[in-house]
Design a protein that fits this description.
With 291 residues, the protein is an alpha/beta fold. The chain contains 13 helices and five strands. Residues 128-268 form the SIS domain.
């Protein structure tokens, strides 16, 4: 079983499911994380321009029985951050504090990657690696700017002999999903964990008996829960520019980890890589001509 997400990661993961007033509480906590352990419910309600009742509802939605429990969890997590020396020099991005903002972005992304690594249970990773290695075909599915991540992994798996298909558009992915068969793997990448078009693809995969692997920052979404295996990618985008602008750094970390495990598994992967180098290497070895 995956480890429980940290408080900030939990808030970011469930942000889109909150009401407008609860989002104001979430925004206040995300923007003032260092002060939260010293504030009361009333002070947070005033700071977020909501009510104490709204703060209490938000706390329950975040999975805590009381505000004191949430406050203690944040304080403990901040202690870990301070101990490893990665506490950010700023709490927001501002051109007026470029150096501090860069440190803040770096610290946020480091915590994303650490949180993601903690969520990757070794047994779960190995099971997905086996599914990829022994699949008849691995088909990728995504929407928007998640598609390039799938294209990259599909290409790299092809370099080591894994039969994959990654259509260039979600519509083409829907058509390809109609040809899925038992023994195939549908590999879904979605930060939000939901899309009507992805739902159609998952429907087709279920009808065909294909195994479904889901990589998402929202593992509790209804669509993710329909998958056979779910891998969580922690996202703190809400602390930076908002969940609308997914950076995908943690998701790419998950995909890169899977590729490296597949490649390290031996078998014919290294031989296929050698053959790929023989077939395509000359294109990279040509000497450029300067006029």
């Amino acid at each position: 079983m995956s480890k429980k997400l940290g408080t900030i990661d939990t808030i970011c993961a469930g942000y889109d499911t909150l009401s407008d007033t609860e989002r104001r509480v979430a925004d206040f906590i995300l923007q003032n994380g260092g002060e939260i352990p010293r504030l009361s419910v009333r002070e947070i309600a005033e700071g977020s321009q909501t009510s104490s009742a709204t703060v209490s509802r938000f706390v329950r939605h975040a999975g805590y029985e009381s505000f004191s429990a949430l406050r203690l969890a944040i304080a403990e997590e901040q202690g870990v951050i301070e101990d490893d020396g990665s506490f950010p020099a700023a709490t927001e991005i501002s051109p007026d504090n470029a150096a501090g903002s860069i440190e803040y972005i770096l610290a946020t992304k480091i915590q994303e990657l650490r949180g993601t690594a903690l969520q990757l249970e070794p047994q779960l990773v190995n099971s997905v690696v086996d599914l990829i290695r022994w699949a008849d075909t691995v088909e990728f599915a995504a929407v928007g700017n998640s598609i390039p991540l799938c294209s990259n992994l599909s290409f790299k798996l092809g370099q080591i002999g894994i039969r994959t298909i990654c259509p260039p558009t979600t519509e083409a992915m829907i058509l390809a999903s109609l040809s899925l068969r038992r023994g195939d793997v549908l590999f879904v990448v979605s930060a939000s964990g939901y899309s009507r078009r992805l739902e159609t693809i998952v429907d087709n995969a279920e009808d065909s008996g294909a195994t479904i692997v889901f990589v998402t920052s929202n593992p509790t979404s209804e669509l993710a829960q329909r998958a056979d295996v779910v891998l969580s990618a922690v996202s703190r985008d809400q602390m930076l520019a908002g969940s609308q602008f997914s950076s995908h750094i943690s998701t790419d970390f998950v995909l890169e980890t899977l590729f490296l495990f597949v490649f390290a598994g031996g078998g014919a992967t290294h031989e296929h890589a050698r053959m790929e180098r023989k077939s395509l290497g000359k294109d990279k070895e040509s000497t450029p001509t300067f006029s």
